[in-house]
Every structure is written in structure tokens, then in C-alpha cells.
Design goal:
The complex is a heterodimer. Chain A is an all-alpha fold. Helices cover 80% and strands 0% of the residues of chain A. In chain B, 40% of the residues lie in helices and 22% in strands. Chain B has helices at 2-24, 26-33, 60-72, 86-91, 106-109, 150-158, 170-178, 189-198, 226-242, 244-253, and strands spanning 35-40, 43-44, 48-50, 57-58, 75-80, 97-99, 112-114, 119-128, 142-146, 163-167, 184-188, 205-206, 213-217, 220-222. In chain B, strands 8, 9, 10, 11, 12 and 13 form a six-stranded mixed beta sheet that branches. The relative contact order of chain B is 0.17. Classes of the chains: A mainly alpha, B alpha/beta.
């Protein structure tokens, strides 16, 4: 290790640069798609978790516990390899021809993260004193309208910091997709390493990319917080 | 604060010095430790895999390092590695020697030192029966292999139009083949034979006679570790002479096994 000489030129141009760039784009796509879907699904599960109907609540609880408490890697393998046994043949054939790797990774990331997001949203809603709901109801708002105008706007603000955490986790967890052959950032960094043996350069590049990606996500959510929700940092 | 920084730097420096000493002379170091730490495969019959009864890692690769350790008078500690992890593990001093179906090639030889070849095979494909007769049949198809292996590069060069899917290791690549996610899995014939022998539905698969490269396996050691390399080379040449190397081959690949491979090579000093 001592006589290792750094050679940054190999990753700033040429074939290896193209690989890393392709990996970056895949990571961005995978993260963005999964973040949006995980947020929507998480919202749905959170609402189901607080629903009046017992079966709906139980379903949401079972969903949460199952997907929160099993490793993401296992879930990725499940969707990629395991779904083969459940799906009908013609769907499998179609998936195999088009390549199921990306979709399987996105499904796994979405479902896994949605379970955490649902709990964050629910705890945000629960932190709003129940008197507010009662006051809204007595002022003539329906249950849904009270949620829409009184409870959720406050709950979302409270939920934003933990949500950012979930988004960041998702972006970094997306690197596990390489185990099923999704050519994302970490996959490409490893590829560069195995072709050039310049692992330090490749993984440094990958580290910087994840760092920047995380900072950008945090900044975007903070911006949304300030501009759209009018929450100021001091508050 | 300044003190803390100085302290950190001293610790870092000390660590580096220790590492440098390690890289210098593995032979002396291993003798002193009494243990030879080996990076091997643990799911690749018959090279390195976990025996169902003993729960120990056994195989062709393992018998070779066992013989080397015996000559050294030390114990063997086996550490499972993957194709991608084995070289960094060696360079960082986590293992002393790689015995993990590793192909000798010029690119790798720039970074580590190899022993003489102790096994010779060639890269082929495993496919669904009757689906592939020549390389042409694989053009534009999806082909599975393992990350960080030479197979990955060879197949990309041989069939540029194919999509190469690299999995963590060969069992997953083969599972993808069984499920139709890839049209073929490619790697060295001896490894494919091992995969095929273990497959639950082996009748459905075959290894067509298409070879895209020669794959001589070498034991990997740290660059410039001349004493150790010489010792290992001497040992395996002696094993060839005494017939021990041949016996190991027959034990894992010969007619009494499910592979029925012919030994078409002899261990000899190359270059």
C-alpha cells in the first residue's frame, strides 16, 4: 500500500470517466424515482395506519413491521430472484427481455423506505395536539378537511427533518442495487477498480458523488421548507 | 488540539511503518505468526467450497495452500474472498496469499506477484441446452458473470454487442440463468463444470464447446515479496515432481468425481 501512486487522470477523462458518469446518472435516476414513490407510498401507509377500519390498520402495521425489520439486501434479492416464482410466465419473459434489474432495485428501495417514511409521517401527525382536530371539527370542518387545512400542514413541517434522513438513506442504499447488476455509481467504481486497479481514485470519486448528492438533497428540502412552508431556520 | 493532531499523525505513521514491514517479507512473518492466512473462495466447488459434512472449506485450491503451509510448518487460516475483494485484501495485508481461482494476466501482474500456474482451464459458457452453438448465437444477448473477474473483460471483448451483467458471485449468475434473466453464464470451464454438477436441474443445461480464452490460475502474493514467491514456486514444483499435484487434481477432477476432467497440463516454471 505504501508505494501506491495516485493517478487522477484515469478517472477524469476517457472510458473510465464515461463509466463513472453513466453510474452517476443511474444512481440519480434510481434515487429520484424511489424517493418520489417512497414518499407517496409512505403517505398512503401512514394514513392507512391511522384509519378507522381495523383490517386496514392491521394491514398497514404488518406492512411496516415486515419491511422495516428485514434487510434491504434480502428484499432486493427477493424482488429480483424471488418474484420469478410468483409472476406468470409471460410477464417473466417480458421482464427478462427488457431487463428487470433497475425496476427490481427501485421497487425494493421504494417499499423498504416507505415503511420508515410512514412512521415518520405518523409521528408527525400524532405530535399535533388532538384539541386542534377537535377545534377544527367544532368549527365545522369535516375530518378530511381538518386534516388537509389544520393537521397535515403542521405535521409535514415537523416531519421534514426525519424525512430528509430517509431520503439520504435511500440515496446511499441505492448502492446495494449493484448486487443484482444495476450499473450504478458503486458498481461502476468497482468496475474501474477491477479494470485499472485504481480503486482509491474510483472510490474517492464515488464518495464525493454520494456526498454531493446528499448535500443537494438536504439543501433542496431546506429550501422547500423555507420558501414554500415558510419555516425559518431559527424557528 | 495541536497535540491531538501530532498524536494522530504519529499513530498513522506507526501504522504505515508496521504495514511496510509486513509487505517486506511474508515468509519470515508467517513463520513468526505460525499462521498462513489464505484468501479463498467458499462457494466454488471443487476449488473452494464448504463441505456439507465437516462445515469446513475444502477444495483443489485449499489442498495446495495446505501443502505449502505444511512445508512451512504453520497452520492455515482460510478467509473467504470474492473475485473483486481478493486483490485489495492482499495488498492491505488482511491475507498473505490468494488461492481463489485467480487467472494470471499481465494487468494483474503489475500490481501483485503470481506463482507458476497451478491449474489450467479456458473460458467457456454455460447455457440452456441447444440454445447456443456458436459465439454468434450470443450476440446482443444478456450474459451473466461475476464482478472483478477476468471473465468479465474477456466476454466483453469477444462479444461487444452483448450486455454483461456482473453479479457478486457465480451462484447468483447461475440463478439468473435458471430464471432466464441471462442467456448464458460465462467463466472458466472448470468453474462452470462445478456449477453444473451442483445444479438441481442439470439436464437442462450444457457447456457448448466454445472457448474464448486460456485461463492459467496462479497463487497471488504481494508485489516484490520475492522470498515468499520463490518458496511457493519451489513447493509447487516439488509437488509436481512427487506426484502430489497430480493426486490433488485426480482427487477433485478425476474419474471418481462428477467432473471427469483430463489433466492436460503440468506445473512448470514459466518465464
Amino acid at each position: 500500500m505504501l508505494n501506491y501512486t495516485f493517478d487522477w487522470s484515469i478517472i477524469t477523462s476517457g472510458q473510465y470517466f464515461d463509466w463513472l458518469l453513466a453510474g452517476l446518472i443511474t444512481t440519480l435516476k434510481l434515487s429520484a424515482i424511489s424517493i418520489v414513490l417512497a414518499f407517496l407510498l409512505g403517505l398512503l401507509i401512514a394514513v392507512m395506519r391511522m384509519a378507522h377500519s381495523k383490517p386496514v390498520r392491521w394491514f398497514a402495521l404488518a406492512y411496516l413491521e415486515f419491511f422495516r425489520n428485514t434487510p434491504l439486501l434480502v428484499q432486493i434479492f427477493f424482488w429480483y430472484f424471488g418474484s420469478y416464482k410468483i409472476l406468470p410466465v409471460f410477464i417473466n419473459d417480458w421482464l427478462n427481455k427488457t431487463g428487470f434489474e433497475f425496476a427490481a432495485a427501485a421497487i425494493a428501495l421504494t417499499i423498504y423506505t416507505s415503511a420508515f417514511i410512514a412512521e415518520d409521517i405518523r409521528s408527525g401527525v400524532l405530535s399535533i395536539p388532538k384539541e386542534q382536530m377537535e377545534a377544527a371539527r367544532s368549527a365545522g370542518f369535516s375530518y378530511l378537511r381538518s386534516m388537509q387545512y389544520i393537521i397535515l400542514p403542521q405535521a409535514v413541517r415537523i416531519t421534514i427533518p426525519p424525512l430528509v434522513n430517509q431520503f439520504l438513506n435511500l440515496a446511499k442504499n441505492s448502492s446495494l442495487a449493484m448486487t443484482i447488476g444495476v450499473m450504478e455509481m458503486t458498481y461502476q467504481a468497482r468496475q474501474v477498480e477491477s479494470y485499472s486497479f485504481k480503486g482509491f481514485e474510483a472510490f474517492t470519486a464515488a464518495t464525493v458523488v454520494y456526498l454531493v448528492l446528499s448535500i443537494v438533497i438536504t439543501a433542496l428540502v431546506n429550501l422547500y421548507n423555507e420558501k414554500v412552508l415558510n419555516v425559518h431556520k431559527a424557528a | 488540539m495541536k497535540k491531538l493532531v501530532t498524536l494522530c499523525m504519529m499513530v498513522a505513521l506507526a501504522t504505515i511503518t508496521v504495514k511496510a514491514a509486513q509487505a517486506g517479507d511474508t515468509l519470515a512473518d508467517v513463520k513468526k505468526k505460525g499462521v498462513l492466512t489464505v484468501g479463498c473462495k467458499d462457494s466454488l466447488p471443487p476449488f473452494g467450497y464448504i463441505d456439507e459434512k465437516s462445515r469446513q472449506i475444502v477444495g483443489y485450491d485449499i489442498d495446495f495452500v495446505n501443502a505449502i503451509a505444511k512445508k512451512l510448518g504453520v497452520k492455515v487460516e482460510l478467509k473467504p474472498v470474492t473475485s473483486a475483494s481478493r486483490m485489495p485484501q492482499l495488498q492491505e495485508g488482511h491475507i498473505d496469499i490468494i488461492a481463489a481461482t485467480m487467472t494470471k494476466n499481465a494487468e494483474r501482474a503489475k500490481v501483485i506477484d503470481f506463482s507458476h500456474a497451478y491449474f489450467l482451464t479456458g473460458q467457456k459458457f454455460i447455457t440452456k441446452k441447444g440454445s447456443v452453438n456458436s459465439l454468434k448465437d450470443l450476440e446482443g444477448k444478456r450474459i451473466g458473470t461475476a464482478k472483478g473477474s477476468t471473465s468479465e473483460k474477456n466476454v466483453a471483448a469477444a462479444i461487444p454487442s452483448a450486455t454483461i451483467l456482473s453479479f457478486d458471485d457465480y451462484p447468483q449468475a447461475f440463478l439468473a440463468l435458471m430464471q432466464g434473466k441471462v442467456s448464458a453464464v460465462t467463466t472458466d470451464e472448470a468453474i462452470l463444470a462445478g456449477i453444473l454438477a451442483k445444479a438441481p436441474t442439470k439436464g437442462q443445461f450444457e457447456i457448448p464447446n466454445i472457448q474464448i480464452s486460456d485461463e492459467p490460475y496462479g497463487l497471488g502474493m504481494r508485489k516484490g515479496d520475492t522470498n515468499f514467491v520463490n518458496f511457493v514456486n519451489k513447493t509447487i514444483l516439488e509437488m509436481e515432481k512427487s506426484g502430489e499435484a497430480k493426486a490433488i487434481f485426480e482427487k477433485w477432477f478425476g474419474p471418481t468425481t462428477q467432473f471427469h476432467l483430463e489433466r492436460t497440463f503440468k506445473i512448470s516454471a514459466d518465464k
